[in-house]
């Protein structure tokens, strides 16, 4: 097979290299803006505390966190500036009966929950994105992921400072 490809790069080589650099830069900026460590599960379960049944599986070009039993849980503790507002944005899909939940709490006020059901889907097999705004009273928050029955697939969990959103 050696020699089957020319030694000289093709006419689109420079454009392709520029595109790869732009994509790499966009991914780095996204990761920098998201306060959740490994919020896209590209590094598996790293930075998440999870029960034994929680897995990360490839799905298309991404990785998804999969909870398939009501006992399955994953959570992450984060430190942040309590004098700012934040947007929690979760992209997920619930399969079967029950509900999938992503709860955020600051240990001082009532927790807030995003709930996903199989009725959320516009078409079968699609992910749904839900958001909520939070204004924590403390410098620590916890994000919990759980489900009641069926399978809950989470594609991404993002926590973005609203000030950063206004600046960009």
Automatic annotation (TrEMBL):
Signal peptide segment: none
Q: Which Gene3D superfamilies match?
A: Galactose-binding domain-like
Every copy of the Cry1Ac-like domain together lies at: 41-118
InterPro entries xrefs = Cry1Ac-like_dom-VII, Galactose-bd-like_sf
- Recorded coiled-coil stretches: none
The organism's place on the tree of life at top rank: Bacteria
Protein name, entry field? Cry1Ac-like domain-containing protein
The uppermost taxa in this organism's lineage are: Bacteria, Bacillati, Bacillota, Bacilli, Bacillales
């Amino acid at each position: 097979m050696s020699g089957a490809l020319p030694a000289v790069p093709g006419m689109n080589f420079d454009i392709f290299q520029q595109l790869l650099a732009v994509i790499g830069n966009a991914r780095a900026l996204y990761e920098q803006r998201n306060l959740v460590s490994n919020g896209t599960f590209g590094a598996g379960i790293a930075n998440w505390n999870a029960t034994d049944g929680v897995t990360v599986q490839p799905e298309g070009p991404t990785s998804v966190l999969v909870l398939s039993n009501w006992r399955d849980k994953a959570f992450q503790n984060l430190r942040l500036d309590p004098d700012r507002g934040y947007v929690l944005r979760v992209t997920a899909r619930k399969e079967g009966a029950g509900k999938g939940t992503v709860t955020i709490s600051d240990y001082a006020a009532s927790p807030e929950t995003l709930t996903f059901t199989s009725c959320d889907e516009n078409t079968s097999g699609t992910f749904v994105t839900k958001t909520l705004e939070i204004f924590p009273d403390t410098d620590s928050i916890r994000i919990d992921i759980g489900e009641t029955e069926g399978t809950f697939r989470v594609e991404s969990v993002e926590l973005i400072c609203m000030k950063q959103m206004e600046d960009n």
